[in-house]
Every structure is written in C-alpha cells, then in structure tokens.
Amino acid sequence: MVEAFTDGACSGNPGPGGWGVLIIDGDERREIYGGESGTTNNRMEMMAAIEALRATANVEKLALYTDSQYLKNGITSWIKNWKKNGWRTSDRKPVKNKDLWLMLEDSLAGRAVEWHWVRGHDGHTENERADALARAGLASIAA
C-alpha cells in the first residue's frame, strides 16, 4: 500500500502558510510542497491532503497520515452531518473551509483511503519530514 504523510504550517493564523507531503511507495520516496500567502493552519493541513491525493491519483489504496485531528475527523466523520445539515455545524454556524472539504471529498471518489492520525512533533520520522516540507512551502511564500 502507498503511504502519504501530510502536514501544514502557518506563520500567523491567518498568514502565510505552507503544506508538505511525503509519499512512500515501496522503496520510492517522493516529496512535494507549496504554500499560500494568506491562509490558516487548517487550510494548509487540508491542502496537504488534497495535494497528496492528487499526486497519487492512480493509486487505488492509500494510507494517509496526518497530525491534524480537524482534518481526519472532518473527512471521516463530521462531513456527513455537515452535508445533511446544509453545510452547517452542530451549533448552526456555516462550516469553515467548505471549498476545501468539497475538493477533498471529490479527490476521494472511487478510492480506498485509510486515514491515520499521528501525534505531531513527537519524533515520528515521516511526520517530521512532512513538517519540514510544509515549512519549506511556507518559506517559499514568506521569502
């Protein structure tokens, strides 16, 4: 199974941000990153996952790792109720980042993706690399 490790970073919230992805397919490792000038940490976490899914579009089975509970819980659980409630949260407020939730959901169509949460900044080698890539994406915008 192909694995993708994702992370987002932001300097200020909102502010310039970056996303990073480490993809491992057997012995092959691929790294991608990017950033945006005015964004939030949650949006960068989501963009990392979207870019991971884009970069592995030909892969049917993917294990995606994130240190964002917002991302993991949002896509595996909360999104069902948001859609049922007209994109409103349980307290009837509009769902933040709806545009990215829709992009993420669309990227998942017809794919088997296992979502995994890992504790961030806890010495997990691949998560630390995804974090470094996200910071590189941030640096490319902030420079």
Strands side by side in the biggest sheet: 3-2-1-4-5
Radius of gyration: 15 Å
Low-confidence stretches: none
The dominant shape is globular
What percentage of residues falls in helices of 4 or more residues?
Answer: 40-55%
Please trace the helix and strand order, writing H or E for each element.
EEEHEHHEH
Number of helices: 4
Mean pLDDT over all positions:
95
Tell me the structural class: alpha/beta
Number of strands: 5
Major β-sheet, in short? 5 strands, mixed
Distance between the termini: 37 Å
What key attributes describe this structure?
five-stranded mixed sheet; 31% strand; alpha/beta
Structure characterization notes:
The chain is of the alpha/beta class. The protein is 42% helix and 31% strand. The chain is built from 4 helices and 5 strands. Strands 3-2-1-4-5 form a 5-stranded mixed beta sheet. A hairpin with a 4-residue loop joins strand 1 and strand 2. Helix 1 runs parallel beside helix 3. The mean pLDDT is 95.
Task: Please outline the helices and strands.
Elements: E1 2-10, E2 15-25, E3 28-39, H1 41-55, E4 61-66, H2 69-84, H3 98-108, E5 112-117, H4 125-142
Parallel strand pairs: 1-4, 4-5
Antiparallel strand pairs: 1-2, 2-3
